[in-house]
Structures are given as C-alpha cells and as structure tokens.
Amino acid sequence: MPRDAVLAVDPPVGTALKSGATVTVVPSLGPPPVPVPDVTGSSLNAAAKAIEGANLVLGDVHRIYSSTVNQDNVVRQDPPVGKAPSGSPVELWVSKGRAPVPIPAVIGKQQDRAEALLRHAGFVPVVQTAFSDQIGRGIVIKVDPAEATPTTYGDPVTITVSQGPQEFPAPSFTGLTPDAARQKAHQYGLEVSFFYVPNTPQLRVISQTPAAGSTVRSGDTITLFVA
User: 110: which strand partners?
Assistant: First the structure.
C-alpha cells in the first residue's frame, strides 16, 4: 500500500458514533525498506540486474562525460547506498567516456615535440610527410583535425611533417664515421653507399659522390669513400 494511504481506522468503518467522538486513523508506512545495492563502477546491464534483484526498479538513466569512469559504466546513483522502499526507482548517471578534447597547437613545432603534445592531450599521433620549399625539415605543416577542434579522447590525429625541398644541395659527410654519416643521410632523406678504401683504417669519410653542394633529390644515393 502506498505511503500515507489509510491502512485502518478504529472504530472500524460502519460503526455508529456520537458527534465529537475520536476516530483513530492508521496510515501506511509504504512498502518495507530494502537495501540499495552499490552499482557505481558497474556496467549498465550489471547495474540493472542488481537493482531488479534487490526488489527495486531501474529509474531514469542519464548519460554524462567522465574522466575517471569508463564508457557505459555507472558514475553515480540516486538513492545512494542505504535503504529504500521496495519497488522504488534507482536513478543512474552513466559515463559517455571522456569529454572531447581540443587539438593542441602543433603547427610550426618540431615533430617530436608535436607528438609529445598530442600524446599528453590523450590522442594517438599519426605521421605523414610532404615536401616543402618554405618549411624546414622536421617541422609540422598541417594537423588533421585542425587545431582547437574538439575531438574524441583517444582518437588518432594526423600531423604532416616537412621533408624540406625535394631538391637541395647535398650536405658534406667528410670526416664523419660511417654510422654518423648514415644517420645524417637519413635526416636528409638520402641513401648512402660506402666504398672502403683498401689498406686504410677505414674509420672516416674522406670524399663523396655527388660532391657536397651538388643538387640532389630526396631518395638519391650518396657514395661515401671511407679510409
């Protein structure tokens, strides 16, 4: 019987009374209270089963962003843990996951710095490259989605990094060890081929073809003579 409904009267209904006589009314306290289960952190399906199993009913379900509770899990409930009348509703707030995050400013930054900023903001950086006659090698030219765009936390974000001009003067490798020369060539997008001069220590680059300053293209091979 609902709370505050009349459960009984004394004297009973139908009894003849004198005017001014006292009648005692016994109101209902409602259904007996039952323990409310703690479903915070549970999935919505598990929470619904726990609520029904406690002789309660699932009330309104609200979807909210949460930085601490995984998507589709319960953030909070009303009533909280305690007791509530049997058959009463339990209202839930369920996580939609993290709120969208703005893409940080990375254009014009070095590739490693841009990747670190994206990871710190919760994104997965994806790198592609492009030639540029105006932007130096290793600098971010473009980001997709654009800077400041609210984007789902954890999404991939693509940065386009400059390879510098497609044609450029060949750098000098003279005096470098083979390992250092290989690393330098990689930075310029060049391949290297080594010729080790017989009967020498073969420790340092002494010359190269094409010569330093000659026009080369990204992907060209430089022959280095090591003595």
Answer: 139
Instruction: Please name each of the domains of the chain with its CATH number.
Output: 6-95 (3.30.10.20), 101-162 (3.30.10.20), 167-226 (3.30.10.20)
Distance CA 61, CA 51 (A): 13
Q: What is the mean pLDDT of the chain?
A: 91
> Which pair of structure tokens corresponds to residue 203?
């420790």
Say how far apart CA 29 and CA 16 lie, in whole Å: 28
pTM of structure:
0.62
CA distance 39 to 79: 11
Pick from 212, 220, 209: nearest CA to 186: 220
Q: Which amino acid, residue 222?
A: I
- Residue range 183-209, pLDDT digits in tens: 999 988 899 999 999 999 999 999 999
Contact between 69 and 41 under an 8 Å Cβ cutoff? The reply is yes
> Residue 77 is encoded by which pair of tokens?
């409930």
